[in-house]
Every structure is written in C-alpha cells, then in structure tokens.
Amino acid sequence: MLGGVSEILSVLAMVGFSAVALWLLARPPARMAALMPAPRMLTLSAAATALWCAVLALFTPGSSQAMVAQPLRDLAMLGWLATTFWSPGAPMSRPLRLILRMLATICLLTLVLGAAAHWRAGAAAEPWMTPTLTFAAMIVATGGLLIVDSGVRHASAGLRTPVMAVAGGFAMLWAYELNVQLIGALTGKSASTLIQLLPAVVLLMLPTYIVAAMDIGRERMQLSRTAAMRTLILLAVAAYLIVIGLTGAIARLVGGDYAELAQAASLVVALGTGGLLIASARARAWLSVMITKHLFEHRYDYRTEWMRFTATLGQGGGEDDRNLHRRVAKALAELTGSPGALLMLPAAGGGFRVAEQWHWPVDVDADDAALSLRSAFMLQETRHIVDLDAERRGQSDENLAIPDWLIADQRAWVVVPILHFQRMIAVVVLHRPPVSRALDWEDLDVLRIAGQQAASYLAESQSQEALSEARRFDEFNRRFAFIMHDIKNLASQIGLLARNAERHADKPDFRADMVETLKISAGRLSDLLVRLAPRGRGPAAEAGRVLIEPILNDIAAEARPRRALFVGCQTGLSAWGDAESVRQIVQHLVANAIDASDAGTPVQVVAVAEHGRARIDVIDQGSGMTRSFIRDELFKPFVSTKDGGFGLGAFEALQIAQAMGGAIGVESEPGKGSSFTLWLPLADAHEGAGVDARMMKVTSQ
After folding, report:
1. Residue 360: CATH number of its domain
2. CA distance 535 to 530
3. Using DSSP, how many helices (H) and how many strands (E) does the chain show?
4. What is the pTM of this model?
5. Cα 327 to Cα 428: distance, rounded to the nearest angstrom
6. Beta strands 663-668 and 674-681: pairing type?
C-alpha cells in the first residue's frame, strides 16, 4: 500500500515540477533576472527534479535507477547555488568554491559510472553500485548543506524571499536524504518506510519554486524569534535522539551491559540539564545570552520588546502595577533582563530621592538613597546612560559625581536618566542581570529611546496632577473672594469708627490711644486685603544678568528693624534670571528664617559661585525641620506650620526658581536650624567656580 502511495506522490511531484519548469521558461528573462540571480539555472533545476521524480514513479525510491538519476538533480541544484552565492554581490569563500567543485565532480562521476554500469552489467552491478552511489549521495548532501548554510549566512542581507525559499527547499531535501542514509548506515538495515516517503518531501519543496515563479515576496524573509527559538528546541530534541541512537548502536557493537548503562547515563544527563535550566535563573539567562549573541543579528526583538514595553507602561496587570512609577521601573528592567529597578524622583530638598522600587527593596527614608543636586545637574546636562561598572573601574570620561552608595552597591548596574524636552524628571537604576555583560551601542540606544517614551508617560501624569492642583487653586481663589469682601467691609467700618471716635471721645488721652489703635488695625486689614487680592501680572520679564550683592544688601536693609543679617557675597557674582524674581525668593527665605529663629540669634546670607552655578545660602539657628516634613510637606501648597498660614510661600518660591532654571535645596535638623540654598545659572559659566576667600566682601548689616 505504501508503495502505491509513493508512486502517486512521485507522479504528482513530476507534474508539478514540469509545470513550474515550463512556467519559469515562459517568464520574461528580464523580469526573472530582477528577482533571481540565475533564473535559467532554476528552470534547469526544476526540469532535472521533474526527470528524477519520473524515475521514482517508473521504478521505486531507493532503487539503483533512482540513485543514478539523483546526481543529475544534484548537479542542477549545485549549479543554481553556485550562480547565486558565487557572484560579486554575494562572494563565496575559497574553501566553499573547492567544495563546490569537488561535489560537482562527484556528481558527474557517479552519473557516468552509474549509467555505464547499468548499460553494461544491469542487475549484476547492484551489489557494489548501490553502496557506492549511496556514499556519494551522502557526501553531496553534506556538502550541499554546508554551501546553503554558509551562503545564506554571508549573503542574506542581499537576498530576497524567493532565493531564501528555494535554498531552504534544497536544504530540506538534502537533510532528509542524509538522515535516511545515516539511519541505514547505523542500523545496518534499509529504512524502507522513510525512503518510500521521499516523494512527499519533494512535494513539500515544490512551493518554494512556485514562490519564485509567481514573483512574490520581494522583501527579505526572516523567521520571528519565537519561531527560531522553537526550531532550536526541536533541533536540540532531534540532536538528543541522534546521540541516544548513536550511543545505543555503539553499545550494541561493544556488547555486554553497556547498552543499559548508556541508557541510564543519557537519562541522568538529560534530567540534570533540564533541572538546571528550570531551577537556575542564571543558567537560563546564560543560555539566552549565548543564543542571542551567536544566532541573531540584534540582541533585541524590537517589535516584541516595544509592544511589551508599551503594554507595561499603559496598563498594569496586577494590584502592584497600578502605580505608574513602579510600572516605569518594571518596564525598563524587563527590557534589559534586570531582576529589579529603582526609580528616583525630584526631592523637595533638592536632588533626586528613591520614590519607588520594583523587586529591589530599599529604605526610601535612608539618607544615602538619593542623588545630590550636583549629580542631577551633571546627568541632565550630559544625558549619559551611566555604566556603573565602568565608573567603578575608573573608565568614565565624565565626572558625573555618582554617589558612593551606588558605586558601593554591586547590584546597581546602569543609571538611566529619564529626560523630557531636555529636563530630567526621573532617574532609574537597573539591577544587575543574572548574567552580567558590558553595555554596547544597542543597549544604549534602546535605553535612551525607552527612557524618552517613559518620560512622556511621567510628564503626562505630572500634567494631570498640575491640572488638579490648578483646580484647587481656583477653588481657593473663589473661596477667599468672599473673605476679601468681608474684610473690606470690616476695614471700612473700623475706619468709620475711628473717625467718629475722634470727634466724640471725651478724654483726650483715651481718644488718642483709641484712634492710634484703630488706625493700626485698619492699616493691617488693608495690608491683608492687598496681600489676598489677585495680582495683575504683566508680560513675563526677560532673563538677563543679575548682580546678587545689591539685592542682598537691599533685603538686609529692609529686614534691619526685625533682625540684623550677616551678608557675605562673592565680589561681582551675577546670575542669569529676573532680578525681581530673585529678590522675591530671597525675601521669602529670609522672612522664614527670621520667623523660625529666636530674637537675637543671627541669620546669615552667603552667596558664592560653585559648580558652574550661583549659590545663595540662607542659614538660621531656629527650630529646624524633620526629614519627613521636608520631603512630604515643605514645598506643597496649602501646608504650613504657621498658625493661619496658607502654605504658599515656599511653593511659589520653588516654582519661580525652577522657571529660571534653578532649584532650591534644604538641609535641616530639628533643634539645629535650617539652611536653604537657592541655585541659579551663572551669567558667565566660564568664570571661576571656586571661591577665593580674599574676594569675599563680608559686611554686617
């Protein structure tokens, strides 16, 4: 029954390849040449295959007649491979050219020898001719597979889908024949069932010729990573079975109980390897790195990785993924195979502090879990993705001021700045993967683009928070509009009372005291009304060179009735910004310092140039603040430690400083006072960043 099926399949293959040969012969040569390097050789290969299938139908697969016709088919296939991979566009190496010539010679010799033996001796030549032709076919199949593999690997960038498909069809046919012949050689018996199925394999090769004849698939064909990985798994299983078969064959030849020993040893090795891959994340990571490094052109499957990255950012899969900051850390970590990540956000006291983590527990209140202002400035200006291993080895070209706690923690692998329109809104620290490796250009490009994508999500989230805050401000203004109306009426009433009392009081001393008191109250209420009224803002002032020393002297003079200030300013220090905005910020910081400290305690204001920026410190010896208050409440609106305070001064000062490209840092401890630092861009960044004590002009106001 199987022989009848094989005969039918052979006839179908003969008809199919004959039709393809005629179809290719009828196609315009110019059109086919644009698609195929050697269209006529492909036509000849289809015709030779059709002739061989005719021999399979007349006789049987595996017969001496089929073995004699097979070299003709192989010779045509090798000719097409030679004209395809041996050209200026896809040059073939010298060893492959030698192999190709050798294979062509073997095909010619076996064709002539087989034809002559059948012509002269007929069936009498079967005993010696069949092993000889089988051995020659094994050599040709092995060499053909080498040529296909090397040619596709070295010339795949310039090959289109039809060429790749036909070459793959050749490889499939040769691989099947080689396996059949190897099984026969190992077992000593002819694999008749597999030989009878040979026409089915030939029919599977027919669509590759049809793809070429239909002029489809002009673009390069490439397996997806999923398909490639599954193919590798199947090949590994096949290799394991082949090794088991060879081991059993050798054990049977040796004799004794070695067959059972070999079977047990193979089972132990297989179970041990499988258990290692299942239990060890490091072993799986190493295998993944090796496969990616040696089998794929790029480390990342960009389509798959980008879809997963976007899906992780866009929506969380569980309860822990509803936090956007955690999703950003998770997405970047999964992109590089890192088992964990930290995400840092701008801290209220300056710099960046760990705000969220993914599979990397860290104490967010710890003093060392932060980036200083200087580190943040350097990362923002250089936009570097920092390889911490290079920093530890001292191979970095930039002084990025990476904090010691990151350098000391060997788990920390990469620092990725999250930039949105040249502004750093977050920093992600990636955990070292199970199999550590050095970063290359592909890692840097992927992390840079992924960071920009994550920055857009974070910026949108911040915009939503700002919109919500703006609505709260609007509600604040509407609510206090009524209060201002009442205060205005009260001020008018008190003023009228003062005027009436001035006319009707009997005792001159009492009248004078009452009038003075009422005038002061009315004045205070009027001042409060002015402070609560919405300010009409004109056009935004343009940034320019601002001398710091005159501003500090003016503020000291204004504050003299309340407190004497100690002012020290580097001579000629100038910042780039708006003078009124700088004055407003320093006034607020000085007022807070006076309010927070006892009478008689000094308040210092010191201004110097440092790290390419202007630094203005306002230092008091007051009650101080806790770390949690600085981090969570100090710069938030509507939060104040003063009785009746609105909590808007520090918030507004920080907003104004950031609008000028600056920042405000805070250092404070309960009972030891506070130090507020205003950072502003220097008007001339090329001026000396150091502070010369001889250039300091210190005055006591």
Report:
1. 3.30.450.40
2. 9
3. 23, 14
4. 0.50
5. 11
6. antiparallel
